[in-house]
Recover the amino acids of this structure.
């Protein structure tokens, strides 16, 4: 039922807006409230704070369906879950009741997640944003970049160095209201793909944050950020799987209708085998994503599995998009055909939420730690 709800929403609500939103680089805000009303956003917020308390498996099922229609729109629809995760995982009861219950659920607000900086992407420890304790509060200075939904966010979960000399033990997470003096959001970035998802810079200039807005323990922010990635990667991987399925189905439809040398092109082995590989990789990636989600729901902590899922789903989605353009031939290069957009949208899956190279680093680390 959940899968059907998400699939119907993708077909009826997202699909008609995809071309316009991609062209105009516009996130359709009107869709967010519709999705929220039927439970397709804020899914992981616990029931006691007004959310669904959805499982990780529920979330990946929905993520695949929404991403099938548009990975840009689905990214922005799902970002509240990422931004809320630090509070869900490490927040106090008061923080959860206010930020999750009152702000996200009751008011229908947006939250954005802020780790990435101009000089610190994969190297999370290298962030330069500082939080100096002064008169019982913290003064934040720095800038975050590539922040999804920053233009719309009502508050942020941001990471800063409270003790720069302590390395990974000197990072802390804060929840920061958008209206706090000194916080500003820059112009959104003009992107190659996922253009319907808003991405912008957040600048912090002497932003005073009360001590009660510290999320988790002071100095434990790095560990919290790593925990957030373990929880968020299955959903991102599922979105890549949704794009894979879209590429596969578009190719099956086109290759059955396109005639070359007197027969449908799928009957030519060079084309048919590309589509067969696409199907194999789609099902394999989907099962890896489901395994990662199942482990989260079962309370099994194993960073390898979400790393397997993220690396494989991202790489295979990229291959599927490239092959889909090839199957479509010259038409695949034209904007009036759907696979052109898939190729532009897919590349970011190998970059955000931890690059494919970082996923392999995690896998190597875990493999050799077991010796």
């Amino acid at each position: 039922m959940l899968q059907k709800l998400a699939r119907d929403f993708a077909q009826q609500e997202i699909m008609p807006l995809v071309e316009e939103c991609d062209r105009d680089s516009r996130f359709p805000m009107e869709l967010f409230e519709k999705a929220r009303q039927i439970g397709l956003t804020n899914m992981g917020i616990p029931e006691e704070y007004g959310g669904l308390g959805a499982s990780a498996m529920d979330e990946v099922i929905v993520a695949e369906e929404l991403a099938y229609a548009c990975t840009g729109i689905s990214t922005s629809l799902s970002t509240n879950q990422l931004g809320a995760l630090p509070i869900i995982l490490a927040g106090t009861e008061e923080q959860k009741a206010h930020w999750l219950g009152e702000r996200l659920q009751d008011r229908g607000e947006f939250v954005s997640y802020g780790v990435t900086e101009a000089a610190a992407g994969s190297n999370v420890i290298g962030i330069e944003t500082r939080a100096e304790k002064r008169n019982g509060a913290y003064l934040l200075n720095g800038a975050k970049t590539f922040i999804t939904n920053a233009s719309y966010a009502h508050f942020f979960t941001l990471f800063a160095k409270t003790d720069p000399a302590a390395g990974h033990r000197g990072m802390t997470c804060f929840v920061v209201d958008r209206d706090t003096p000194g916080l500003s959001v820059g112009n959104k970035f003009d992107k190659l793909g996922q253009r319907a998802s808003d991405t912008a810079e957040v600048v912090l200039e002497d932003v005073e944050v009360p001590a009660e807005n510290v999320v988790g323990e002071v100095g434990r922010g790095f560990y919290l950020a790593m925990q957030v990635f373990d929880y968020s990667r299955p959903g991102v991987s599922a979105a890549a799987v949704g794009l894979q399925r879209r590429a596969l189905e578009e190719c099956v439809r086109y290759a059955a209708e396109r005639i070359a040398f007197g027969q449908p092109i799928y009957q030519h082995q060079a084309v048919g085998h590309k589509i067969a590989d696409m199907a194999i990789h789609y099902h394999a990636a989907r099962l890896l994503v489901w395994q990662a989600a199942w482990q989260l729901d079962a309370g099994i902590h194993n960073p390898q599995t979400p790393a397997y899922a993220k690396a494989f789903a991202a790489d295979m989605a990229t291959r599927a998009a490239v092959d889909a353009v090839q199957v479509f031939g010259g038409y695949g290069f034209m904007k009036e055909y759907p696979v052109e957009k898939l190729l532009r949208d897919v590349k970011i899956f190998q970059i955000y939420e931890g690059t494919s190279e970082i996923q392999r680093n995690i896998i190597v680390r875990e493999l050799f730690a077991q010796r």
